[in-house]
Amino acid sequence: MKILFYNWAQLDSPVMAGGGVTLYLRNVIEELLTREGIEIYFLSSGHRYNFFNRKPRIEETSNVYDNPRLKTFTLLNSPVKAPAHDAFYAVDRWLRDDVTMRLVRDFIHEHGPFDAVHIHNLEGLGSNVLALPKNDKLRRIFYTFHNYMPVCPQIELLYDNRLPCADYHAGERCVGCLSHDRRMQDLIAFERVGGTLKGYGLAGHPIGGFLFDSYAGIRSFIRAARNLFNDIRHGLHTRFRHWHLRPKTSVGGKSSWRPGPHTRTPTPLPPRQRILDGLAYRQWREGNGRMLQQNVDGLFAVSDLCGATVKRFLPPGTEVETLLLPIDIEVSAAERQAFRAQRKETDGITLSFIGYNIPSKGLPFLIDALSGIDDPFYREHVDLLIVARLSPHRERQLAQLETRFRNVRVIASYARNQLVPLSQMIDLNIVPSIWWETFNQVTVELARLGVPSLVSDHVGAKQTLTRPEDFVFEAGNAEHFRAKLDRLVRNRVLRESFFEEELKMPSVAEHVDLLISHYSGKSTIS
Predict the structure, then answer these.
(1) Is 171 found in the same domain as 32?
(2) Where does the record place the region Disordered (predicted)?
(3) Alpha-helix residue ranges (DSSP H) falling in 97-248
């Protein structure tokens, strides 16, 4: 059996680019390599650009596995940049790009036949790869929803980083969803410079910093010159009537509500011109939906919540099967107890948040909700640990909780091999996500190491819990959250009831068995 996997980041990325998807693919591929007769190809795209040779092409890459049955490749100079937000204002190109489609099709023709191509996101590729023709070189295509990208280029179905998006108003709402206005071509230009400097070993080097800043400065100078040229051209049309010198000092004036002889009526203007029309976002969602329904042999969601959410935005009748994510931490109850026995005994309880400092993950909500606790018990017995890379603004917000808790501490980041000692610092983890989070691997990782989690009902991993009535709260509801939290903080027995039964999730081996069944055509759902 020969399988081609796609993810925008290479699976052995030293900085874990791609996050949880990268970790999942490592686990799956490592298990597949233990099976005889399976050959794996892995393709990434959208993250490597050359300054001098700008031709899009696919090249083989090295990887840490050193296994002859695993070959890795990357598509250089992709017209579609990853990650997703970098291409948000280029969804028209993202949907129809034929360069990446042609390169992937030729790659399959050269290296096939493949029993299956399994696509794990559309970042870095034109989404029309979903319409790859199936023939003697490609038998089946599969897609896994780790996020909502095919129906939402913001990927989280979270409008303006505030509200779960139930209606995108035929694409019109998408136009104002993101606060940034970065153009993909500008981001690719900077990535070309950064990637070239990295290739010469100058990333992080003072000379590399000088060259990168010089490039940015030259682009700013060119922009300033272009603006001046446009001003001169406008001046020629208006006889430079607006080019007179302004007064060196401002003259004082009076303010009156009564209009004077020279008072002008305010001029209503339309909103600023859109970067991209709403029709492009509608076509993105509808076009991808058609390709997923008509050409893809199996659509997988990583949780029931993920599947139910995405089906609301796909064509009626589209089948989506839940394949719960497995985790590589597979320990017995005795091992879990041994891990917990190694932790230092304290007279208090430590709460934690582990995740990204972004609104969708719920950290702003958590800070606001915890600031509503004014209880001597918390000030004397409860510590708070935030494991996230915080902005100065967020750290200032967090500081208000120092008067609410005995101790507030921050860990900016951790390596995966630090997960055990990190877990030994925590009594109860909090997952306050406000987006319809497709899974949440931290919940199950910590659970396997003996740490319970209190999760919002927008977290897909809630279906693995055996006591949701005690460990799930209503997303965005601070009062409900505090009530659930308080019971768990004050009751150790209730916290430990989290482990009365094992999590309801498959092992990596069981998950891979299901995948192989689909790849071979024995369990295809569409």
Answers:
(1) yes
(2) 251-271
(3) 98-111, 184-199, 206-238
Rounded CA gap, 220 and 522, in Å?
57
Q: Which of 340, 320, 358, 312 is nearest to 451 (CA)?
A: 340
* Average pLDDT of the segment spanning 211-223: 79
Beta partners for residue 5, in sequence order? 42, 118
The dihedral sign for the CA sequence 292, 295, 301, 302: negative
**Tokens of residue 432, six digits:** 């306050």
Q: Look up residue 88 and give its two tokens.
A: 């948000």
The domain spanning residue 76 has which CATH number?
3.40.50.2000
Q: Residue 459 in contact with residue 325, Cβ under 8 Å?
A: no
Which two tokens mark 486? 């308080």
Angstrom distance (rounded) from CA 491 to CA 484: 11
pTM for the model stands at 0.89
Domain around 287: 2-181+278-326+512-519
Residue whose tokens read 């998006």: 165
> What are the phi and psi torsion angles at 168 (to 5°)?
-95, 10
* 192 residue type, one letter: R
Total count of domains within the chain: 3
Structure tokens at 396: 């200032």
The span from the CA of 426 to the CA of 348, in Å, is: 11
pLDDT in tens, 446-467: 999 999 999 999 999 999 999 9
| Number of Cβ atoms within 10 Å of the Cβ of 478 | 18
Alpha-carbon distances of 410 from 168, 390, 394, 398, rounded to whole Å: 37, 9, 11, 10
Return the sign of the alpha-carbon dihedral for residues 98, 101, 103, 109. negative
Sign (positive/negative) of CA torsion 158, 161, 167, 172? negative
Mean pLDDT of 229-249: 81
User: Do residue 355 and residue 337 come from a single domain?
Assistant: yes
